[in-house]
Amino acid sequence: MSRPFVYFISNPENRAFADINWHWFILTGYEPTGTNLRIVCATYGERRTADFNTLWNTGKEERGGMPTVRE
User: Which of these, 21, 19, 14, lies nearest to 59 by C-alpha position?
Assistant: First the structure.
């Protein structure tokens, strides 16, 4: 059984993510890209993709997190 993951991003320095500042979204999949991942997410009613390392490395100590939902 697959479980949904939600992702919270807090105040990223990368301006490419300015519209998801202090924002929750749902991870809906991933695509391996060599030694990294391209995550697929749903936010604001749209499908988006992002490089995981770029998204996770916000440039700040407080990054956010990825809790999972269990039954």
Answer: 14
**Residue of 37, 45, 40 lying closest to 28 (CA atoms):** 40
Average pLDDT, integer, range 26-36: 89
Evaluate if pTM is beyond 0.90.
no
Phi-psi region of 63 (alpha: psi -120 to 50; beta: other; left: phi over 0): alpha
Q: Where are the alpha helices (DSSP H) in the chain?
A: 52-56
pLDDT at 55: 83
Q: Residues with Cβ < 8 Å from 19, sequence gap 6 or more?
A: 44
